[in-house]
Amino acid sequence: MPRPILATIHAPALRHNLARMQAAAGDAKVWATVKADAYGHGIERVVDAFRAADGFALLDLSEAERLRALDWRGPILLLEGCFEQRDLEHCSRLGLWHVVHCEEQIDMLATHKTQVPHRIFLKMNSGMNRLGFKPERYRAAWTRLNALPQVEEISLLTHFSDADGDKGIAAQVAAFEAVTADLPGERTLSNSAAILRHSPALAQRSDWVRPGIALYGSAPDFAQHSAASWGLQPGMTLASRIIGVQQLQPGDTVGYGSTFTAEQAMRIGVVSCGYADGYPRHCPTGTPVLVDGQRTRLLGRVSMDMVTVDLTPLPQAGMGSHVTLWGLAANGQCLSIDEVAAAAGTLGYELMCALAPRVPVQVQAED
C-alpha cells in the first residue's frame, strides 16, 4: 500500500472563501488569483470552485493555456505581463489581458502585428518598488500606450506593500489617485489584505479586486487576525498517520541532532510526513499537530520522510492514528496553516506552494 499521507483540497471551502471576498469587495469585480498553480492547490482542482469569479489572474502562459482548456472563456490577466515579444502572440490567441509595467513591454507592443487589439493593465509603482512606472512617469506611459493601434483599452493598476500592517495603504492610494484622477479606465488596487482590512475606504475606487491567499483559507495578516476571524475556511488539509510508537525514558533523545531530550517518561509517535513532502524542515519542537483531532506537539527535528509527535497526553492514540499536519481533522477541529507556518518562521503561502509532487491529492467536492 502507498504511504499514508494525503492532501485534501476542500472545494466547498474555496467556494465559501470566494463568496466571502465577493461580499467584502462590494460592487467590484473579483479576480481569483491562481498563480503558482493555484498556490499549490492545482489549477485543475480549484477551477470549478472559482467559476463564480469574474476572471482569473496568474503569471504563466502555460497556466493560462490550462484554464482555457478547462473551458474558462472569461477574462484572464497576466499579472507580470509579457516576458518576450512572442508572448504577445499567445495573448492574442488566448484572449489574455496583460499588465504593462515597463517601457520595454510598450516597445514590444509597438512592434506587435495583430488584428485584435490588446486589453492592458498599466501598473504604477506607488511605493512597492518592484514592478511598475513611478508616478512621475505614469502618465507618459499611458499616453504612449493610448496612441498605439495595438491597444484597445487601458486599465489602471497598483499593488500595496503594507495593506496587512500598521503602515497601511493611505500614502499609496494618494499617490495613485493624484496621477490617475482624470484618466479613463477601470481601476484595480486591492489584494486580500486590502479587501479585508480597507474595503470601505476603497469601495468607490476599485472596479476589480485581486484576492489571492484569502481564497485558500489563510489570513493575509496573521497573527493580527486568524483566518477564522475573517470568516475564511481552510482550502487544504495535509494529513497522515502514526506508523510507529516509541517509549522514552528520562534522558532519551529524539531524531537527528538529538535536539529534543525527554525529561520524564514519554510516549511518542512517528508520523509518515517530512520535508520531502513539503512540511517545513524548520518547524521546531512545540509546533502544533492534531492526532485523532486532538492537539499535541512536534518533537525533535523534522526528517525527510518522518516527524515525531508527543503522544504522552493522548493515551488512546497509537499505531494508525490519524494525524493532521494542517487543516481539518475528521472531528472538525482545525489546525490553521498559518499557525504551523508561524512556528517555522514563514507564511502560509510558502507551505501551500511547497506541497511536494509525491504527496497524493484528492478533491473534496461536497460538504
Radius of gyration, taken over Cα atoms and rounded to an integer in Å: 23 Å
Structural class: alpha/beta
The low-confidence parts are none
Please report the total strand number as a whole number. 19
Beta-strand percentage? 15-25%
Q: Please state the second-level CATH architecture of the largest domain.
A: Alpha-Beta Barrel
| Element-level helix/strand string | EHEHHEHEHEHEHEHEHEEEEEEEEEEHHE
Outline type: elongated
Give the CATH class of the largest domain: Alpha Beta
Number of domains: 2
Task: Tell me the name of the CATH homologous superfamily of the largest domain.
Answer: Alanine racemase
Instruction: Determine the N-to-C terminus distance.
Output: 27 Å
How many helix segments?
Answer: 11
Largest sheet: 8 strands, parallel
Widest β-sheet, arrangement of strands: 8-7-6-5-4-3-2-9
Could you tell me the mean pLDDT?
A: 96
CATH topology of the largest domain: TIM Barrel
Question: What is the helical fraction, as a range of percent?
Answer: 25-40%
Attribute tags:
Lyase, Ornithine Decarboxylase, Chain A, domain 1, 367 residues, alpha/beta, elongated, 6-stranded antiparallel barrel, TIM Barrel, 11 helices, single chain
Describe it for me?
This protein is an alpha/beta fold and 367 residues long. It folds into 2 domains: 11-218, Alanine racemase (TIM Barrel), CATH 3.20.20; 236-364, Lyase, Ornithine Decarboxylase, Chain A, domain 1, CATH 2.40.37.10. It contains 11 helices and 19 strands. The protein has helices at residues 11-25, 35-39, 43-46, 61-69, 87-94, 103-110, 135-146, 170-180, 192-202, 337-343, 348-353, and strands at residues 6-10, 29-33, 55-58, 76-78, 97-100, 118-124, 151-158, 187-188, 208-209, 236-248, 253-254, 260-261, 266-271, 288-291, 294-299, 307-310, 322-328, 334-335, 361-364. Strands 8-7-6-5-4-3-2-9 form an 8-stranded parallel sheet. The mean pLDDT is 96.
